[in-house]
Design brief:
Keywords: Signal. This protein folds into four domains: 150 residues, Sandwich (Jelly Rolls), CATH 2.60.120.260; 121 residues, Jelly Rolls (Sandwich), CATH 2.60.120; 77 residues, no CATH class; 65 residues, no CATH class. With 471 residues, it is mainly beta. The chain starts with a strand and ends with a helix. Helix content is 6%, strand content 33%.
Length: 471
Amino acid sequence: MLFVFLIHTTVILTVIAQHNLTPYGTASQSSHIHGGNPSNAIKPPISNQFTLSICSHTYVSRTNGPAWWRFKFSYTYAYITDITIYYREGFARRMDGFKLCLTNTSATPPVSDFCYTDPNTGLPNITQTISFNHFAKYVIYYDDKGSYEVIAERNDGPVVELCYVAINDNLASDSLVSQSPSGSEAVSLAIDGNKTSCSRTKGSTVTFHVDLQEKGIVTGIFMIFGEHTSTVDDHTIYASNSSSTWKSGSILYKGKSLPTKVNFFEVLRYLTYELATQQPSVELELCEIGVIGCPPTHYGSICTKLCPKKCQGPCDLESGNCIFGCINGWTGDKCEQACNGDRYGKGCLEECSTNCFQPQCHHVTGECLGGCKDGWQGFNCTQKCSNGQFGTNCSEFCTGCISDMCDRVDGLCNNIHACKPGYVYGDYCNKETASTGNISDVLNIRQLSSKMMYSNNTIPNKEQEYTILTV
């Protein structure tokens, strides 16, 4: 006996290791004869060998009415990577001109943008694997061409004779699972796509962990339990973004019995199912587990739309809006607008440096694109010029100033009373003398000029001092 915990919402995420999805749906066809039932095509053996008990078979008509075989998923939508078909051996002529389509309606002929059509370049291979990488509710094999039977010398209408169909989904390969205690049956059996093989563990408290390996929006899970699972103890399902603190995460379900339906909306990376008891021990036998939602990069009713590239994390499943904000430098509901004006960074909340030569800086990093105002340097112009440098991007040097010390903006020497030897005195000490001298000569000349001026009861200005010093 199996206990089924199932939620139908959007689409199975990476945790489900169902390489063949046909156990999770039903098959039908346009007609059948003598036991060639549509369900035969989704049951072993995997072969092209034909009998009416192991292959599907529609009625052989002398008219041109279409024939079809259809598979419907039980959990609404599925992501399909590829489909492998095994047609009846020796009857490729009846397969000639077929279509294989992924659709969201049961209508025939199928209406879909995701159809493979036999190219009619000769008889097709009776075993084919066809890639799709898309979501759908239905898979439809369709034939409206018919064939010519040479031996019987007649034209037959379309016929479907499928001996095996595998609808493949390999998204599960990226998930990690573990259980505690390790148990008597391997944890991997819970994600092998076979609901008759089950992981099994026993203890006073047992847990089963699923790591999706990245955060995503999840709207539900399903689990298939084996008959040995304790059903009347404490069942709890946690959602978290940390493997070590999952008990402090959100509680998605808590009850005394196995749930039959649970709906929730969470952004999570880890799911943990815990089974606890007041008895000496409790047993968990888990045959299959799946997570329902969209991958973190997609949204929409069937997760076919890509989230905006500038979203910070997953986007809203319905609108595609970036509900967790934007990456640095972008803003708007879908993060389609770069920061403008004098702002940058996370949420465009950072202000560009006032030392930028132009008001606007790079919207992501804050770099001053037009360089810095005089006296500043660095990618965002927040560093003062080093000693001995000044001007635009600190590219000028005040080598004539005493100790190389000057104003970092305009280069005015800090010591306004003298220059280094070899430089003519002035505010900037930026003119070299015709012949080099020493500092004492410069100071003596300055003292002499001062005495001459003050003896006449006059205060020298800089132009007069400069004239005296250059005589």
